[in-house]
Amino acid sequence: MKRSDNTVLITGGATGIGLALAEIFLKEGNEVIICARTKANLDDAQKRFSQLHIIVADVSTMEGRKVLTTEVNNRFSKLNILINNAGAYSITDIMDSNYIETLQTELATNLVSPVALIQQLMPVLETQTDAIIVNVTSGYVFIPSAQSSAYSASKVGLRAITQSLRFQLKKTLIRVVEVIPPAVNTKMNKGKNISLMTTELFAHKVFKGLIYGEDEIVVGVSKLGKLLSRIAPKFIFKKMNTDEEKQRIERSPGVIL
Q1: What average pLDDT score do residues 119-142 get?
Q2: What are phi and psi of 184, to 5 degrees?
Q3: Which helix (H) or strand (E) holds 211?
Q4: pLDDT of residue 251
Q5: Whole-angstrom Cα distance, residue 163 to residue 178?
Q6: Which PROSITE patterns match (predicted)?
Q7: Distance (Å, whole) CA 204 – CA 201
Q8: Rounded distance, CA 175 to CA 253, Å?
Q9: Banded model confidence at residue 188, pLDDT cuts 50, 70, 90
């Protein structure tokens, strides 16, 4: 990836790791568009970084994706980097009465939405000589979380589609990158009694990986998770999920970025 002069779209870009990525791309001399479902969050982000372009859109819906892609097609014909970062995350039990609703929401946001946006924005991306599609998954692709099983399933699915898309596009100029974060200090991880990476450090590592041409950017403790999932899968699954149970994280309706 070239360091500057890119036009970047970041979904879920108003807060957390999305905003941290927006900041580092801006500082390096790139044009950055962020979208989110909450206008107030977008306005706050633009107050911090006046160069940001903001678009209100709920990418988990067909209508929201249409709004976003229409804006991009009309205003940003040089778009060459799509970062699918928007996500929905909940702590729930598979036997809860509302689990299927949770599963549908998280699949729509975390899996269907990125694939739909890739399809809809492909006509713009394929006209560029240096296009990159970035899908943000999770360390849970290596070790699923029992208390966040819907989220884990959606991210495992996105990892599979990312790998498949990379293979399908191997003869084109479009790069397909998977970013696999550790636990980062965001609203999603509020209350967890574990060490959290700062959003700034995470964004720096992702940007560095993109510059170096990495197709799979595994950050922080997710590297250890990847290794242990290969050499001791049953042990690490039981240990991580036992530790999560002990943390007694308060259940909430969830987080949508």
Answers
A1: 97
A2: -110, 150
A3: helix 199-211
A4: 43
A5: 8
A6: ADH_SHORT
A7: 5
A8: 35
A9: confident
pTM of the predicted protein model: 0.93
The pair of structure tokens assigned to 102 is 């949770």
**What is the rounded average pLDDT for all residues in the chain?**
94
Instruction: Please give the share of the chain, as a percent, with pLDDT higher than 90.
Output: 89
Say how many CA atoms lie within 13 Å of 172 toward its Cβ.
17
Residues 46 and 26: beta-carbon distance below 8 Å = no
Q: How far is CA 23 from the centre of its chain?
A: 16
Residue 212 designated active-site: no
CB burial of residue 25 (10 Å; 0-12, 13-18, 19+): buried
Please name the helix (run of DSSP H) or strand (run of DSSP E) that holds residue 117, with its range, or none: helix 113-125
Helix or strand holding residue 21 (H, E) = helix 16-27
The answer to whether 255 touches 187, Cβ cutoff 8 Å, is yes
* Spatial separation of the C-alpha atoms in residues 93 and 148, rounded to whole Å: 8
Angle between helices 149-168 and 99-107 (to 10 degrees): 30
What confidence score (pLDDT) does residue 164 get?
98
* pLDDT at site 203: 97
Cα distance between residue 208 and residue 256, in whole Å: 27
Count, residues in the chain: 257
Band (194; pLDDT cuts 50, 70, 90) = low
* CATH fold for the domain made of 7-256: Rossmann fold (3.40.50)
Catalytic pick from 99, 140, 151, 212? 151
